[in-house]
UniProtKB/TrEMBL annotation:
Protein name: Protein FAM26F
GO BP term (any one): regulation of natural killer cell cytokine production
Organism, as annotated: Macaca fascicularis (Crab-eating macaque)
A single cellular component GO annotation: immunological synapse
Transmembrane segments annotated in the record for this chain: 20-39, 51-70, 102-124, 176-199
InterPro entries referenced in this protein's UniProt entry, alphabetically: CALHM
Subcellular location per the Swiss-Prot or TrEMBL entry: Membrane
Membrane disposition: Multi-pass membrane protein
Family: Belongs to the CALHM family.
Pfam families (UniProt xref): Ca_hom_mod
Amino acid sequence: MEKFRAVLDLHLKHHSALGYGLVTLLTAGGERIFSTVVFQCPCSAAWNLPYGLVFLLVPALALFLLGYVLSARTWRLITGCGCRARASCGSGLRGSLVCAQLSAAAALAPLTWVAVALLGGAFYECAASGSAVLAQRLCLDRDHNCAAELPLVPCHEAKASDVQDLLKDLKAQSQVLGWILIAAVIIVLLIFTCVSRCLSPVSFLQLKFWKIYLEQEQQILKSKATEHATELAKENVKCFFEGSHPKECNTPSVKEWQQISSLYTFNQKDPYYSMLHKYVNRKEKTHSIRSTEGDTVIPVLGFVDSSSINSTPGL
C-alpha cells in the first residue's frame, strides 16, 4: 500500500512531465511501426516525393490537431463561444497568446514524429530521391543515368553502384536534419521556459502552492458536484414516482457556470488562484468576472486552465 501511495504521489507531483514523456514514447513507437510495417517506398519518379512527404507530414498534422482536441484549455476557450458575447471568447493580444500556448503544447507530438522519422531516414530517403532539385545536386559528376535511377535507390534497385551509394548520403542528410530539429526544439523550449519564469508575477514557492490549491479545489468541486447531482437526481426520481413537486434545490445558473468556466486571467490587484476563487470573491453579484481592467494572460500560469474535474486523481 505504501508503494502504491508513493507511485501515486509521484504521479501527482510530476503528472505533466510524465504525460509529455508518455506522449513522446508513444509517438516514437508509432513512427517506428509505420516505417517498418506500413511504409513501402514506390521507387517511382512520380510518386516518391509525395509518398514520402505524406508519411512524414500528414501524421504530424493529425497529431497536432489531436493535441488541440485533447487539451482542456481548448474546450474552455470554445465551448459556448458562439452563444456568448464576442469579447468573452478572447480577442486581440489575449486571444493570440492563448492560441500560441495551445499550439506550443500541441506541437510536442508532431515534432517528435518528424524528429524520429528523420533520424530513421526512410521517409526522407524516399521523398528526396524523387525530388528533381535534389537530383541535380546529388548527381553532379556521377553516372549520366543518375537522375533517372535515383528514385530506385530506396529499393536498392539502382544499377550504377555510385548511384546506389547515394542512399548513404540521403540517410546522413535525414539524420543531420533530425538532430538539428531536436536541438532547435530544446533551445526554443529552454528560452521560452526561462523567459516565462522570469516574467512570472509570483515566486517559485507560490507557484507550488498555487498548483496544490488547484488540485484540492478540483477534488472538492468534483466531490460536491457529485453529491449535489446525486441529491437532485434522487429528488427528481422520487417526485416522478410519487407524483409530487420537488423541493427547491439551489443549483448554479447557466451564467454562473459560464463565469467559472472562462479562461483564467491574472490581475495584480486581485491575484485569485482560479476563476471559481475570483467568482466567489466578486464585489457585486451581478458583476462579470470574465474581463476586467488589468487582466492579462500570463504564460507561466497556463496550468490554471489546463486543470479539469476529470483529470484530478481519485475522482
